[in-house]
Write a structure and sequence with these properties.
This protein is mainly beta. The chain contains six helices and 61 strands. 37% of the residues are buried.
């Protein structure tokens, strides 16, 4: 009896199985099985093939010996020895009602490089018997260099019934010169406008082991759209990659699988891992598509990206590009001084003519070496380069590139921030490149690059500029710069924009949205208010689009604060279409958001930003909750967001009339956490808009010094226009007899000019209604000073400077009123080409006074009652002593 029990125990141990797990799929096949009446007992049986620990490259046919009296069998396969099911971490496959002793499941095990366990159960009515052994085998992948995804016929593609309708076709014209057919996709505005998206799908069912990227040829022509490739992976998840469209260009698109992101809304979600070793479906998706369009897709395949390394720039080797094909912008040849290893290129330039150039930089001023590269930027989001110069420091480094669609982008950095001794390493985020010419879609795609251009601007002397180790890097991998959250210390300062030394630095920590398509940050010294204010930020947005959002991650260590304070100034430009004549001006709609550590979002809305510098002080209690329930405290803030937008409507206020006006600036400065004790949002104007005086509509006061109590107040508005050590502006009580209690005392010394400047914002009514013809200003001189009155205008992105000079023999030692028509101002940069008129008066952004004398002495003049005036003529030039 003991022997019998021992035998039964051993038999039970043989019958015990090590289970497996899987993707939870269970297959039940149709084997035309009809159950028969059970009779007898099930006989022992064994597994045959695949054999124990066999290594295979293809899924085999499974076979086993017969179990006597069995009416059918169940086959189980799994990647866990315990056959775990309903767990996405494991593979599990089950097939019931197999009537024979072998079965082929070759299409059902797509995951390779896995040890699989398999077992069989025999069935007789309600009786079951597990096989007397459990085998495992290793299913090895066969790596491939490429796997084609056949386009098939149009009937193989399905069009999502809820999306916009499209017309599909097969183009056999060899459009891409690749001896391949192309799938054509066409759609029309009347179909896309009410829906905005398109999805077409094709079954693939291909193993892609050994490959790591998707390759395809793509052509698009049409209205603004966003194109996406979406793949469904082995466990049914959807993964997407944007196609960086270059309108009317025959594109090569290479998309590393590592760059795909997961779709999670209204689709299958399993292990959150892109199981790209087997692709079930591929989709071409269009989103944000409301117009006409046509595209061609060809040669879709997965590839080993390394096999296409010749198409990528990771680190630039200048010797890879035939110098005979280089071009020279502005007809200045810098030569082809390339280092032996090809990693550096030095531009040589001379003030006068040289052996390569009939004219020197004194005449040219700028130039570029233009290299045709025709390659992709490799994976990354920044350009890194080392630079060094010799000679004068007055110029600017300028690096430009041309994208496939004809957009040109540039980065500029002053020589004064570089070194003549050692290389300076620059990290330039793609977002930090400004537009120099938009011949394409106006987006910073930075994918396929036609040209790289190495040059300089604002250079009139001799010297060299070396570009070295130019490469594409990822921000997340760079440790030399701080790209993480910004720590906010005891002073509460989040950003005053004065600590940056290059145009690239704001982009290290500020993150920009992409949906507005015009997001950009510029450090602006011209609009910065106050003598100790180096820069403000200029943040751009495009009208009639999603808001342009600028976000900064924070770690707040500040204590005892209850408010957010920031300075904002809007400079949005009104569209000149006559349908908007009912609008005097347009101004950005702003959202200020605070994200907390638990994800709660608070916001404050400003319906229309002020056109003059305004300090918005917003107590935490004035913020509204957008989502979540966490209490708003300073220590809980992990992100600040600023969002700007404007939507054009017809005069009825209901009908939208999109203009897509670009480059609307909003100036931002002095963002700080404060303790104010306020219970509601409060606004403090930091400057005033220049408009006609209430007491005399023919005049518009710019400065009468009456709003200041101290010199410190003056220097919160006025700035020093240069670095002259003698700059010293003071509030004075010496006034003209025209009334008032204050004037401005402008100290100076010798022939080196001081400069005192006030930023200006001119109300639109000044140009349309008041229509000034010049200025009137009260001055008290010292009998020896020469005074320069300068008007700065920014018109269509171009700075213009006009000047009126009051010579020393014209400057009276007593209070004198000077009336000067705008016709008496001359263009200081290019004589006779620029002037102040009623049409451009609103573009005056700064007025400055420069003062010198010829006897090297320290002295001062006084200024009061500076006004625009319509009662004079454009040619008026008079000086009247004030009694």
């Amino acid at each position: 009896m003991k022997k019998l029990l021992g035998f039964l125990g051993a038999l039970l141990m043989l019958f015990s199985v090590n289970g497996c797990s899987g993707n939870g799929t269970t297959a039940v096949g149709d084997n035309s099985f009809s159950p028969s009446e059970p009779s007898g007992d099930l006989g022992l049986f064994s597994l045959i093939s695949p054999t124990l620990s066999q290594v295979l490259e293809e899924v085999p046919e499974f076979s086993w010996t017969e179990s006597s009296n069995a009416t059918y069998y169940t086959l189980e396969i799994g990647s866990s020895a315990s056959f775990i099911s309903n767990n996405d971490a494991f593979v599990y496959y089950k097939h019931d009602y197999i009537s024979s002793t072998k079965y082929d499941i070759s299409a059902s095990l797509s995951q390779k490089n896995v040890t699989y366990y398999w077992r069989v159960t025999a069935h007789l009515g309600g009786k079951t018997l597990l096989c007397n052994n459990t085998f495992n085998f290793y299913l090895k992948s066969v790596d491939k260099d490429e796997v084609d995804f056949a386009l098939g016929e149009t009937s193989d593609w399905s069009i999502h019934e809820q999306g916009a309708p499209v017309t599909l076709g097969i183009d056999d014209s060899n459009f891409f010169s690749n001896n391949k057919e192309a799938l054509s996709i066409k759609f029309q505005k009347e179909d896309t406008k009410p829906i905005g998206w398109i999805v077409i799908t094709k079954t693939v069912e291909e193993d892609t082991y050994g490959t790591d990227a998707l390759y395809l040829r793509f052509f698009y022509s049409g209205d603004d759209a966003q194109a996406i490739v979406r793949l469904r992976d082995n466990d049914g998840e959807f993964w997407r990659h944007k196609i960086l469209l270059a309108n009317n260009s025959k594109q090569i698109c290479i998309m590393p699988f590592s760059e795909f992101t997961q779709d999670t809304q209204l689709v299958t979600v399993n292990n959150h891992v892109f199981d790209y070793f087997h692709i079930k479906y591929m989709e071409i998706v269009f989103e944000q598509t409301w117009g006409d369009g046509a595209c061609l897709v060809s040669e879709v395949k997965t590839i080993k990206k390394a096999n296409y390394s010749n198409l990528f720039i990771k680190k630039l080797n200048f010797k890879d590009y035939d110098t005979a094909a280089w071009k020279w912008e502005n007809d200045y040849n810098f030569g082809t001084d390339i280092s032996e290893d090809g990693t550096s290129y030095t531009l040589h330039y001379d003030q006068a003519a040289n052996s390569l150039n009939t004219m020197g930089m004194a005449s040219k001023g700028y130039g570029f070496a233009k290299i045709y590269v025709n390659k992709f930027f490799d994976t990354g989001d920044m350009v890194k380069m080392d630079v060094k110069y010799s000679g004068t420091s007055s110029g600017n480094l300028s690096f430009r590139l041309q994208e496939e669609d004809g957009d040109y982008w540039y980065y500029l950095q002053s020589f004064s921030s570089l070194s003549t001794e050692d290389y300076t390493t620059l990290y330039i985020p793609f977002e930090a490149f400004g537009a120099t010419y938009l011949g394409g879609n106006g987006r910073r795609e930075f994918s396929f690059i036609l040209q790289l251009q190495f040059g300089l601007t604002n250079m009139y002397g001799s010297g060299t500029l070396t570009y070295k180790d130019v490469e594409i890097v990822s921000r997340s991998e760079v440790t030399a710069i701080n790209t993480g959250a910004r720590t906010i210390g005891s002073d509460g300062v989040i950003d005053n924009f004065d600590s940056y030394t290059s145009a690239a630095e704001p982009f290290y920590q500020w993150k920009l949205s992409t949906s507005n398509k015009d997001e950009f940050i510029t450090l602006n010294s011209l609009k910065a208010l106050g003598s100790n204010n180096k820069y403000c930020a200029q943040m751009a947005y495009k009208a009639d689009m999603a808001a342009a959002t600028y976000s900064l991650g924070l770690t707040v260590e500040t204590t005892g604060v209850d408010s957010l304070s920031l300075w904002l100034k809007d400079a949005s430009v009104k569209n000149d279409s006559s349908v908007f004549n009912y609008l005097d001006s347009v101004s950005a709609h702003a959202y200020i958001g605070l994200t907390l550590s638990a994800g709660t979002i608070y916001y404050f809305e400003i319906a229309s930003l002020s056109k003059v510098w305004t300090n918005y002080v917003i107590p935490f209690s004035a913020f509204k909750v957008s989502s979540g329930s966490e209490q708003l405290t300073a220590s809980s803030i992990v992100k600040l967001s600023l969002a700007f937008s404007y939507v054009y409507y017809l005069e009825d206020g209901v009908t939208q009339s999109p203009t897509y006006m670009m480059s609307n600036p909003v100036y931002v400065d002095n963002i700080v956490l404060l303790n104010t004790g306020l219970s509601s949002e409060t606004e403090y104007a930091k400057e005033k808009a220049i408009k006609a005086d209430a007491s005399d509509a023919t005049k518009a006061t710019i400065e009468d010094a009456e709003s200041y109590a101290t010199t410190a107040d003056v220097l919160n508005s006025w700035t020093y226009g240069n670095t002259n050590e003698s700059n010293n502006l003071e509030l004075a009580n010496d006034v003209s007899s025209q009334g008032g209690q204050h004037s401005l005392k402008m100290n100076y010394k010798s022939y080196s000019s001081v400069s005192y400047a006030i930023p200006t914002t001119v109300d639109a009514s000044v140009g349309t209604t008041m229509r000034p013809k010049g200025i009137v200003v009260d001055l008290k001189g010292d009998g020896k000073a020469t005074v320069y009155i300068n008007f700065y205008l920014l018109v269509n992105g171009t700075v213009m400077l006009v000047r009126k000079t009051i010579e020393s023999n014209e400057l009276k030692s007593g209070w004198t009123r000077y009336a000067i028509g705008f016709g008496e101002f001359t263009d200081y940069v290019s004589p006779s080409t620029a002037s102040v008129t009623v049409n451009n008066i609103i573009y005056v952004y700064q007025i400055s006074f420069g003062i010198v004398n010829s006897d090297y002495s320290a002295s001062a003049i006084y200024m009061d009652n500076l006004r625009l005036d319509n009662s004079i003529t454009r040619t008026t030039d008079t000086a009247t002593e004030i009694a």
